[in-house]
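Quick board copy: two proteins, each given as sequence then tokens.
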Amino acid sequence: MSEKKDKAKKKDKEVKDQVEEVLDNAIDEVDENGENKEEQPEGKENELTQEERLKEDLQKEKDKFLRLFAEFENYKRRTSKERLELFKTANQEVMTAMLPILDDFDRALNELKKSGDENLLKGIELIHNKLKETLKAKGLERMNVEQGEDFDSEIHEAITQVPAPSDDLKGKIVDVVEPGYKLGERIIRFPKVVTGK
């Protein structure tokens, strides 16, 4: 991460140096042209032409400077946007890696409820809730998908179709095999469902 910061600082410095160099060249050129004008006595027409030429040169240098400055501003905006995207992506990878652990916790809780050991169940529930709340604080949100909802291919992943147990479940979700999760507004894992046909 620090290497990227160093590279970004280096690029910023290079662009700043280019801007300063263009300005210095423009100032030097104006100074040289001004000295030449004093050294060479010319007629009024030549002085006006010389003055107009200097104004044109100065205008060209101003344009170069403004373009370079605008390019630098765009560069700053682009790098800050890329940096934010990098943070989001890094967070997404960690969250995606944690999802199977959450699934394992859910399975373990279901099995412990069947065993009837209340103390063990309570301890595992505390750890499970702490993990869920920590991930929720970082932006992870479980998608609520229930039996009987309409199947939407944009937000659900159908793993199989089974004959609908009743007519009202045709084309709808019959069972949720694996829950889906969102990170902010983005779905990082689609819920895996069984649909009725």
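And the next:
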Amino acid sequence: MTDFTRIGRDPAAFESFYREHVQAVQRFVARRVDDPHLAADLTADVFLAVIDTSHTFRADRGDPTRWLFGVARNVVAGELRRRARGLRAAGRIAGRALLDEGDIAALEARIDAASQARALYLAMTRLSDGERAVLELVALDGLTVQDAAKALGIRAGTARVRLHRARRLMRDHLVPATTEVRP
């Protein structure tokens, strides 16, 4: 495991962490956005945030993957809020210039692979923010309920209740009600 106290100042430690986690972060982002340029920018932003906040990681609070998903969730949510208000980040333009056709094709393939997940996200709009956050971290990102609770800063019991509600609501929405037809 990477020594987090070194990520912000040691390029080798950061590179090791990046190589270990970049695919998971790209999958996380691709499930939430449908523009390959934005997906590349947000993935880069997640790792920039990791460099800036690596000193806040506390090993006694859990594993680094959970912490990383918390950082990624905050970065993606922040961007979606900015986009909703019509703001554009100048850094996205510079990031796009660094992508070659192979990078774009790989991101488009990830985005296409995540299209069903985006359809589920549309159904998830009926959930509260808290229910949706727990469901995403547990069902999509593979965290345990306890790890999701810690990533969200809530109690495990609260996370279990939110997850139960979210699953019930998603099941009710995705599985059409069957009606008995009598002759």
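Board note added afterward: DSSP finds ten helices and no strands in the chain.
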